[in-house]
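Exercise 7.
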Amino acid sequence: MLGLLWLAWLAIDARQQLLLLSQPALISPAVSTPIPRPSPDPTAIAGMFGLQPQVVNDSVVEVPLTLLASLVAVDGQGSRALIQDPDGQRFYQQGETLPGGAVLQQISAGQVLLQRFGQSHSLPLQNAPSSHLLQAQPATGQRVNHQALSLLVQP
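Solution. The predicted structure, written as tokens, is:
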């Protein structure tokens, strides 16, 4: 008798399982969709390494510059460069911003170095140095004035 009850229970259980499978599912099975990851930001990565992105502004026009003269001080602090642009000419010191956005980085006797949008540019002296320029030499027994310019014009 016990065996018969067990078989009846299995038959009822199997019938219930078949009824459940024949009914439409109320809940659809969960399908995992991959979450899209944003691509890394190159500007942020460059900033982590201390780099600044180059910003090219189409509204910035290049200004023609001409180096007319350079006066180089012995200590380098009093050096000046006479630069001409379309609006005129004036003396600039190291670190000053020129028309067009370039920054004067270094002044030497034959050229100046400019930096614009992270790139270095050389602006050579318009005319080759003449033989009338001499290196300044302090007179015997005199102290050197560090603000004196290193180039003198020979009479």
